[in-house]
Amino acid sequence: xxxxxxxxxxxxxxxxxxxxxxxxxxxxxxxxxxxxxxxxxxxxxxxxxxxxxxxxxxxxxxxxxxxxxxxxxxxxxxxxxxxxxxxxxxxxxxxxxxxxxxxxxxxxxxxxxxxxxxxxxxxxxxxxxxxxxxxxxxxxxxxxxxxxxxxxxxxxxxxxxxxxxxxxxxxxxxxxxxxxxxxxxxxxxxxxxxxxxxxxxxxxxxxxxxxxxxxxxxxxxxxxxxxxxxxxxxxxxxxxxxxxxxxxxxxxxxxxxxxxxxxxxxxxxxxxxxxxxxxxxxxxxxxxxx
Length: 290
Ligand code: R1P
Ligand code: URA
Description:
This protein is an alpha/beta fold and 290 residues long. Helix content is 27%, strand content 29%. Helix 2 (80-95) runs parallel beside helix 6.
């Protein structure tokens, strides 16, 4: 079995994984990921008990039990670059033997649910509504660095996207990637469902102009109008495409649910998104453990 070199699979002196600083026994198979590290405590405060608390850089992890089931909540920080680290390191914790530095023969599949905030791109979605992402539209480019065969369905959506939007070839090549059906089914009755666009930034890449002119000033209008058999782009956030893409490649199940805190067309911003976020957290904890 080929040994993975020290420079490729980086471990700390105590043999924990480099950025997350976690050991394999410190994570559950069901993992909630959130962008804001402070949201981790908000969630783990609801656990029956917390067994491990580990922190390194912006990555905060709490593992404990909820409803008698082992569960982990992990703060990823913002962006798909952080997700590249989080997904590869979580996978290494379960599917690579860190002692021998070899890939395990029997693979473990994690359930990864992201609870986030987002900006809505359809006028009928009110601020504080819940949105589940059946598909991600990756505008960030991360997945282009990995070898992956997209499904026929995902490739068809991409072809339609180029046809309908006249999307600039100079930007990162976009891609569509599907959520785990099993996890999407847990949430779809409580949420708007559709496509979530993942951007590589909060401002220009999401069509926000403060002082700098934009190369794609109509990006929001193009996304709003995109429609394939009533499948539409509902929202913008910054992590889901990388979570879905890397999970699909590595054999994990992933799904994102978000609270819409802004609506980019009605120009509203939530006066208090903490209450709906708290309700969404309760829903996810219940559905993952019932
Ligand atoms: C931007 O404000 C951040 O909020 C959203 C975006 O994806 C990005 O991470 O999600 P979180 O609330 O989970 O951080
Ligand atoms: N998060 C985003 O990425 N965009 C928004 O508009 C709101 C939250």
